[in-house]
Amino acid sequence: MSRNSSLQALVLSVRPFGEDNRIVKFLSKEKGIFDAVLYGGPKSKLRAYVSPYHFGNLWIYTDETKHSIKITDFEVIKYHPEIRENLFKTWCASFCSELVIKTDACGEYEKIWTLANGFLDGISVSSEDECRIAFLRFIWRYIGIMGLQCDTESCLHCGENLTNSKGKIYFSILENGFICENCFNQSNDSFFELSSEAIIFLQAVTLLSPKEARSIPLHFSTTQQLHEFLTFLINRYTGCKLKTLEMSSGIL
Ligand SMILES: [Zn+2]
Fold first, then answer.
1. Distance (Å) from CA 160 to ligand 1 centroid
2. From ligand 1's centre to the CA of 57, what distance in Å?
3. 76 has which bridge partners?
4. What is the Å distance from ligand 1's center to 142 Cα?
5. Which of 61, 190, 231, 237, by CA, is between 20 and 30 Å from 135?
6. Strand order through the sheet with 177-180
7. Is 119 within 8 Å of 145 (Cβ atoms)?
8. Model pLDDT, residue 120
9. How far is CA 150 from CA 48, 60, 184, in A?
């Protein structure tokens, strides 16, 4: 059985297929992540429309017997041109795309659809400094959708409230959780040391609305601290070394 259908989709990646054709990976709310073939040479108008991080209305033809999907049309609603004009934004978008593909959007298509589109829209209109913080929110929310956010409110051992903690806060790599200064035994473990500003930021991203969380400023040193910590966590939780993170030196 074959059929024509249409849906809203985000282009995650495009790669060559045969001489003139391309295989395009899309994310949609209904179908999750799927491949579709784009036929046509360099002069094809569709080829310019179907580019990474473009969002729009997609028309496809599904051939059930051949297990193939062909792109018949794509109407771009958002081009996100700013992403291509800035190296850091391009890197953020390709990280987003790689993460979504490698985790198959955690099987949570609707939630990842909202998160990924919100992230790309956000970095399009933000300054580079704001993008660096948006990147941190994006990873922490992604970890939340994976169901792997650890408790940021109390010490894993003694239950002390970390928000009011005057001492240092550690993330134990071995125990995968936050520990207060009194309970932490540095000689036994590999760890990240985080400021209370970093902990409060993570809590805010979990608890507040995206709009409220966006208004929380971060010192540059905390941004760096969280970048190191969250990129470590996302590599750990996805179980794969994300290529975009390996390529990040020189951009960050
Ligand atoms: Zn403790």
1. 6
2. 52
3. 56
4. 27
5. 190
6. 177-180, 169-172, 191-194
7. no
8. 98
9. 42, 41, 17
Do 9 and 70 share a structural domain?
Answer: yes
DSSP assignment of 29-77 equals TTTEEEEEEE---TT-HHHHHS-TT-EEEEEEEEETTTTEEEEEEEEEE
Output the pLDDT for position 249: 65
Centre of ligand 1 from the C-alpha of residue 18, in Å = 59
Which two tokens mark 75? 């109407």
Structural domain that includes position 238 = 81-150+186-246
**Residue 121: what pLDDT?**
97
How many distinct structural domains can be found in the chain? 2
Phi-psi category of residue 40: left, alpha or beta, with phi > 0 → left and psi -120 to 50 → alpha: left
Same domain, 144 and 228: yes
Sign of the torsion formed by the C-alpha atoms of 174, 175, 179 and 184: negative
Query: Which residues of the chain are modeled with pLDDT < 70?
Result: 1, 188, 249-252
pLDDT score for 156: 93
**Over the stretch 62-120, which tens digit does the pLDDT of each residue have?**
998 888 999 999 999 999 999 999 999 999 999 999 999 999 999 999 999 999 999 99
Token representation of residue 127: 């300054």
